[in-house]
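Progress report, Aim 2. The chain analyzed during this reporting quarter is listed below.
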Amino acid sequence: MSMTDGPTPLQTAAAAQAAEDREASSKAAGKSDLRQRGRRKSGYFSDRWHALSRQQQWAFLVIVVALAYMLPLLNPPIITTEPGNNFALACFDMARFALIAVGLNVVVGYAGLLDLGYVAFFAVGSYCAAMLTSPDSPFLHIPYLWTIPIAMAVTMFFGVVLGVPTLRLRGDYLAIVTLGFGEIVRILATIIPAMKGQVGFQNVGHPPGTEADGTPIFSNSNGVPWYWLTLTIIIIVTLLVGNLERSRVGRAWIAIREDEDAAEIMGVPTFKYKVWAFAIGAAIGGLSGALFAGQVGFVNNQKFDVTTSILFLAAVVLGGAGNKVGAILGGALVSYIPLRFTAIAEYKYLIFGIALVLIMIFRSQGLLPARQRLLAYGRTAINKVTARDSTEPKDTDNPTAGPGTRTAGERGAEA
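Predicted structure tokens for the chain:
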């Protein structure tokens, strides 16, 4: 040993503890880096969003909602659908698809029930509004706004009627049954004289209110009031569905979606919650159908074919099944793309198909995939407990001692 090296310090308990702390901190830093890289992979923007406080999230949402209300008035040149389609009416159609996607997302995204006949509930809601408000109908006529809760109640009833005998089926079998139900409703609308087949119902009612010159506010040619009404309904429905998602019902739906057998073994009444999902989804479908009938003013059997039902399902899958915001985005996009390229009518559905294929190749889980909140919360809790344990002083004589255990020095002092 040279004179410049100085004396070698003795290996005391404090030095050993310091070395152990340095090693633990280096391991913690390594784990933190791995977690950060994992979060970057799972979605940078999603993590940034969930890192915001509740107040910051609400402030951001208020700005987004204000811009959404102003969208038909702004008519941005880049995304406008004119001159092929009126942009305000296109906004209403996007909102209508978004509302339908939110309802179907309850069935497909939350409960995992493959429904190919959702257009049937949409048709039932439309016919409820038409048969109770159109002068062509021989039935009792009531104000249009009253038809909305009636349409929801009737479609909820049809959802229960369809769900009770069929929801013991799964997967492809359930998809075929629901597809058949959609066709049955369309055929009944054709062969039952009271539903007037292809002739349909004209001059379907609309919400009250007139402008200064006597023109109805909710006219068929003015899409702005209809868009604002539908957007308001979407916000209300999204809040209600979000509360359901965080409740016991929502957790039961997600358990059924992930593994129905395991959920049933754990005591979840799967059949009851599946019927609930079908009924709630049907009610939202009937609501959107009543809005559609009021805006268009004409309902017949040609508007509820299988292609429309497949588009509804594509909206949910494209946006991200199990994510209500993704369903809104997917519904708006499925409606927007054909309207945007109406000027080149020969190619609009070709462009629509290419866009769907590309999106599903690069975003196979949808534009906004469902986030496993409960799993994320569990990991957060584990990380907090791990971090707390690493900061607690450890007993060198008993490395397995937990927090709150007396150290060797404390035991020696007591002796």
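The longest helix spans residues 13-42. The first strand starts at residue 201 and ends at 202. These observations will guide the mutagenesis work planned for the next reporting period.
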